[in-house]
Amino acid sequence: MKYLALIIAVLLVIPTFGQRKKKEEEPGLVPTYTEGIPYALPRTGLKIHVKALNEKFVPGPYAAYAEQLLGIKNAKTQAVSKWEITEVAIKTFSEPDPEQVHQAMGEVAALLNLSADGCLLGINNANVVPQALPQPTSNSSVQKPGFDDGFSFDYLTDRPSYYPGDSTNNFRPTKVSIEQKAAEAAQRILDCRMNQYDMAALMMDGEHPDGKAYEVSMKELKKIEKEYIQLFVGRTTYKKQSYSVDYVPGSAVKSGQVVFRIAEDKGIVSATDLSGKPVMIEFDRVQELNQKYSKEAVSENPDAGASGIFYRLPGIATIRLIYEMNELASVRLPMAQFGVVAPFPEDFLGGDYAVELHAETGAIKAIQLK
Predict the structure, then answer these.
(1) N or C: fewer beta carbons within 10 Å in the chain?
(2) In the 8-state DSSP scheme, what is residue 324?
């Protein structure tokens, strides 16, 4: 009985040992990894450059007398300031997408080629050379001086606001009326025109200026005439402004987002400055392309995605900037985050292939057998 029990115990142990040995030596089994290398797929950002022009009109203080004294009709009496977008340029840049951060697991994690900001550039590809990060460019509003030159109609006069008194009014100063000032200004304009005529017709009293003196004299008379006419017709000045802003839409962003605003007094301002009217951004995506991608990118491999390697199939969209129901600009371009993310085929990750991805979109650029 003693030997029988020993034989039965040996028979029970031998199959278990054989199964364990077979399991350990069975080819194709991959050890379980608990750590990996994180990486990101890129997303597409928009850098929007805008140039605007401000037209500011200041009415002349004697506008009401323009027709009566000078025959100028319909002189404007209301101040106007308006901004006009003169140029819009939309450029793209790429950056890591926080919605698409993954972890490469297993031996393939040692074969990753990453960019300086952590995006996947390739796998097992010695020819992929990560480029340095681009030099940053500040987004700011730059205004070129136009009407803020210190000019004021208050200083454009050679007449005092009060006449000195005399014996008839006990020497009390008398205020000069607006009608009197307008009449004197109109007379100055007529005098300038007459002097220009006399000079051109060689009818000036005394020595007639010639050569450079003639040129300078005529230029000065025209300048004085223009300044006095502005007292009646007003003054229009212009100011240019340049503005740039970065906008990075999410994968599920909806149209109608505010990218910046236009204020009457300050021009182009940020989206958070509620003093301005909004400039909206709209996206028209090519949905049919994504539907095809989603259908064809499905893998029947049960281990698809086990290695943690994914790539993008970027979407296509038409982007429009809208201000007060008018289209300021439009552009059609690929947007990485509007596309489809798919697992990389596991058969290409064993080290026999070199893979390269587009840095801007995360799409496959090349797969080569080494």
Answers:
(1) N
(2) T
Entry pTM: 0.73
**Alpha-carbon distances, residue 26 vs 19, 23, 311 (angstroms):** 10, 5, 32
Q: Is residue 57 within 8 Å of residue 239, measured between CB atoms?
A: no
Pairing between β-strand 364-369 and β-strand 235-247 as defined by DSSP bridges: unpaired
pLDDT, mean of residues 187-200: 86
The radius of gyration computed from the CA coordinates of the chain, to the nearest angstrom, equals 39
Q: Look at residue 15 in the predicted model and tell me its pLDDT.
A: 46
Token duo for residue 291: 């539907």
* N-term to C-term CA, the chain: 65
Burial of 317: CB neighbours in 10 Å, binned 0-12, 13-18, 19+: buried
Distances in Å between the alpha carbon of 37 and those of 30, 71, 192, 345?
17, 82, 83, 18
> Where residue 217 falls among pLDDT bands split at 50, 70, 90?
confident
User: What are the residues whose beta carbons fall under 8 Å from the beta carbon of 314, sequence distance 6 or more?
Assistant: 44, 334, 335, 336, 338, 339, 361, 362, 363
Please state, in angstroms and rounded to a whole number, the distance separating the CA atoms of residues 81 and 218.
33
Residues 6+ apart with CB under 8 A from 227: 156
Residue ranges of alpha helices (H) inside 79-236 are 178-200, 211-233
d(CA 338, CA 43) in angstroms, rounded, equals: 9
What CA–CA distance (Å, rounded) separates 258 from 270?
9
Q: What distances in angstroms separate CA 207 from CA 201, 204, 212, 218, one per listed residue?
A: 13, 7, 14, 15
Report the 3 state secondary structure along 203-232.
CCCCCCCCHHHHHHHHHHHHHHHHHHHHHH
Q: Token match 């025959």: residue?
A: 71
